[in-house]
Amino acid sequence: MIYINHNSALEQLQNLVDISFNKTQDHLPSSFILQQQQALELLKSRISLEEIIDESITFNRGLHWEETNPHVKLVNTAEELVKIFQLRSQVYTNSGFHHQYPDAIEGLNFDKFDKNSAIMYFQENDEISGTVRFIFDSNNKLPVEDMYSFGNIRQKYHTFGELSRFVIKNNHKGLSLEFKYLTQSIYHLFISNDIEVTIVAILKEHYKLYSKFGGYKIFEELSSNGEIDIPFLIMSWNPNLASNFFKRTFLR
């Protein structure tokens, strides 16, 4: 994959296209102009993808990471990221959540938050079947802040962020290996990188399990999350307060 790392490339291209449109749009059919605009949007997304892959890999390589499980890894290559973006797209499409979490490019689910996220994945027999990311707080608002403000959290904690894009390919009854080992790796990531607390939005029906983890605090209960008309909970989790149940279930 070839990366476009010049920040001015897209701006220059946009200016050229705008000039061209302004000169010719009165003489061209609207269908042709629409096709050109769609082509430009696709090119924008391609440039954004390459930028996100480049910055995400650099960010992940700078994290403290101990491989505590041979099936769970931190992203290190463009090929891994593309497979993860494909898995997200597949799972959200199959679950009906693709309107809430739309693909940036058809078949690839990514966004600007991947640039400063620890992105982990579960792999067995060369197949990536689960992934999760931890978004480190930055100048950008965290995704969940569209629903709830965390200004007070920023004042209280040094290092925090949001867990998101936790997807597993196959639905299993009980505790799947993907869920168990990814959750285990989230814990180790927190401890190794001095993360004090994380924010997470979960389906209310899942709280019965998460409440057993220890260290969870509910901030808000919502009747829906955007396009997903299902009750949600916005919570924080402090891994330093993990319960004996969590340690027994996920750390052994």
| N→C terminal distance | 39 Å
Helix content: 25-40%
CATH superfamily: Gcn5-related N-acetyltransferase (GNAT)
What does the largest sheet look like? 7 strands, mixed
Question: What is the domain total for the residues?
Answer: 1
How many helices? The count is 7
Strand order of the largest sheet: 1-2-3-4-5-7-6
Query: What is the 3D shape?
Result: globular
CATH class: Alpha Beta
Structural class of the helices, strands and pairings? Answer: alpha+beta
Beta fraction of the residues? 15-25%
Note poorly predicted spans: 1-6
Radius of gyration: 20 Å
Order of helices and strands: HHEHEEHEHEHEEH
* Counted beta strands: 7
Q: Briefly note the CATH topology name.
A: Aminopeptidase
Task: Please state the second-level CATH architecture.
Answer: 3-Layer(aba) Sandwich
Mean pLDDT: 84
